Amino acid sequence: PTTDKNEQGEHSWENVGGAAWTKIAEEAETHLRQEDGENALVDGIRKRRRLRTRNDVAGGRRVIREMIRYVYLVIDMSAAMAEKDSSLGGGTRLHSTVLLASQFLLEFFDQNPISHLGLVIAKDGEAELLTQLSGNPKVHVQALARTATHGSSGGDFSLQNALEVAGRSLGHMPSYGSREIMVLCGALSTCDPGDILMETLPKLKQAGVMISFISLAAEMYVCRRIAEETHGTMNVCLGKSHYHDLLMSKCTPPPVLLGGTKKRICDFVEMGFPTRETSEFPSLIHVTKDRKLFARTGYKCPRCNAKASELPTDCTVCGLKLVLAPHLARSFHHLFPVSLFVELPHDNSAATKLHDASVLFSSKDCQDSCFGCLKYIGVPPTTKPKKSGKKDFTSNNLTDESTPGAILRFQCPDCKNIFCADCDIYLHEELHNCPGCLCKG
User: Fold this and answer.
1) For the range 380-386, what are the long-range contacts, defined as Cβ-Cβ under 8 Å and sequence gap of 24 or more?
2) Residue 100 in 3-state DSSP?
3) Residue 312: pLDDT band by 50, 70, 90 thresholds?
4) What is the DSSP letter of 269?
5) Among 20, 32, 400, 72, residue whose Cα is nearest residue 232
6) Given a cut of 80, is residue 18 above it in pLDDT?
7) How far apart are CA 171 and CA 189, in angstroms?
8) 123-132, 331-340, 359-368: which has the highest mean pLDDT?
């Protein structure tokens, strides 16, 4: 018998990346049109900007958010996750979930450096605490990789057991931090030992735990009910990119709810700023609560003089939070996000010709250059190569006319500087600061 598999061993119906229907877009007049590569990239940039309009600054409001978060990530490893899903790239649901969860762990601790996260897996009608709450992303990534490689998925998914395991650990966390549970499930049913709505849900609400769900198959009523009762979210992913966007959106801390069961009080959190010391001979270094090693370099706790291997972390001996000043600065950007840039129309008649200088040292040398990277924005007037075949280094740093998104220009509403599309994305999603506003003081 013949098969329709390609060189990668996939069926033709699994390769949806090059399908014709993925290049169809809908216009404002509800007409369908076929996208080319350039329009798709420009539309993608503008779509990310539309998602950014939902933040606090774009809405003209200031939202109080938690700086310290205690989160448990529950991963469904039942038999439903072993099924192949063409919308997730052709692999199994578990394989796609493990890859995206590893990216989420790194992004979560990058945006929330003083928060803690733990992993819970659910399979065979039971729930297992894979990792305790910790501020070290390497521990979670390595544990998740070992489970995906050597572990096996199967059995039924038990939502009640997973919430009980995570809820018991979150109940002992300090009240100044948010308590959250994120569930990634692909099952369409849950096999529970009791009534989850009457037994487990009241205890979680009393502890102030917020529960959110991302389903890979369809929405379950019990998940929707729990998410609404605990002020969480319930989402169903439509594809791999949508799955990635839903998961990465959880890196932003949830807003503080007024009038809830959790009483809002001001607490002082003790933190220590350790010093990095390098000794001539190896000394005892605490990696985790259960693991120690001998090394020459470590971070010395200012209270008990114990040494930790990396930061941020909690001191294994005295429990003091050990952080650095950049960690606190990165935690503040959720409270004061960068203002949304305004897209400017491109005017070809306003393009200024560059002089024969080979390098731009400042954006003041050309009004059509990006303030951040000094890249020329728009279609340059002189980009024709020489007939001799040699490269023209005076115009090599200019954006080519065929480059998608080259004409997109964005202006900061505060400092009035102009940025390109790449810098707009980088400043809002990675740096969380505007260089023009910082130079302005």
Assistant:
1) 380/351, 380/354, 381/351, 381/353, 381/354, 382/353, 382/354
2) helix
3) confident
4) -
5) 72
6) no
7) 27
8) 123-132
- Residue 428 pLDDT: 86
Give the model's pLDDT for residue 332.
Answer: 80
CA atoms of 164 and 166, how far apart (whole Å) = 6
DSSP state of 321: E
- Judged by DSSP in three states, 277 sits in strand
For residues 348 and 379, give the distance between their C-alpha atoms in angstroms, rounded to a whole number: 8
User: Tokens 């959880």 identify what position?
Assistant: 250
Within its chain, how far is the Cα of 61 from the centroid? Answer: 23
| Helices of type H across 112-234 | 137-150, 159-170, 201-206, 221-229
Cis peptide before 174 (omega within 30 of 0): no
Number of Cβ within 10 Å of residue 127's Cβ equals 21
Q: What whole-number distance in Å separates Cα of residue 412 and Cα of residue 341?
A: 5
Whole-number average pLDDT of the chain: 80
DSSP assignment of 30-85 equals S-EEE--HHHHHHHHHHHHHHHHTTSTTTTT----B-SSEEEEEEEE-SGGGGSB-
Residue 352 half-sphere exposure, CB side, CA atoms within 13 Å? Answer: 11
Long-range contacts of 34-40 (CB under 8 A, 24+ apart): 37/404, 38/402, 38/404, 38/405, 39/404, 40/404
Q: Quote the tokens at residue 247.
A: 């998961």
Q: Average pLDDT, stretch 80-84? A: 92
Token pair of 440, please? 């302005």
What does the alpha-carbon distance between residue 264 and residue 115 come to, in Å, rounded to a whole number?
Answer: 19
Output the pLDDT for position 56: 53
β-pair type (271-272, 321-322): parallel
- C-alpha pair distances (Å), 233 with each of 97, 212, 219, 319: 18, 5, 12, 33
Structure tokens at 230: 């605990």
Position 1 confidence tier, pLDDT thresholds 50, 70, 90: very low
Q: With pLDDT > 90 as the criterion, what percentage of the chain qualifies?
A: 43
**The pLDDT value given to residue 409:** 87
- Is residue 162 within 8 Å of residue 127, measured between CB atoms? yes
- Cα–Cα distance between 400 and 381 in angstroms, integer? 10
d(Cα 200, Cα 205) in Å, to the nearest integer? 9
